[in-house]
Amino acid sequence: MNQLETKSFKDLKLTERQEKEAIYKYDLCDLIDKEIYTNHRSAQINNWKLGALHKEWNDLLQSGCNLVIEAPRDHLKSFFFSECYALEQCHGDEDMSIIIMSASDGLAVKRLDNIKRWAKAPRYRHLLKEQTFKAERKSGLATARQ
Description:
Elements: H1 9-12, H2 16-26, H3 28-36, H4 41-45, H5 52-63, H6 77-92, E1 98-101, H7 105-118, H8 125-128, E2 134-138, E3 141-145
Antiparallel strand pairs: 1-3, 2-3
Helix pairs in contact: 2-3, 6-7
């Protein structure tokens, strides 16, 4: 009977890019830290960090179950889920659209503007090439269209 072997990324002989993609697929916190924060001036100046709560959220995302997240203000719920997670989903499917529903038009458009800002990071620039984004406002609903 053969025993199941555990292999590291180095054993798989992946390229650096393949290794990064494999890690990012399962670790949104690492992706945010290395791809978004390193390309965002405010994040660098203010030393933004994600914590244990965000790692727990990442684990819940990986479980594939439906989520309802309740956390106090300023815990980065919208940033984590509505902006970064949505943007990463588009990274894998360039034909995807993002729809943000919010209490007001202004908040929804602000989220989409943030997504566009994060999309300027090198990892996501291919999403911006030869495409224009516009926001449609419909009473608390903002949609990014390509």
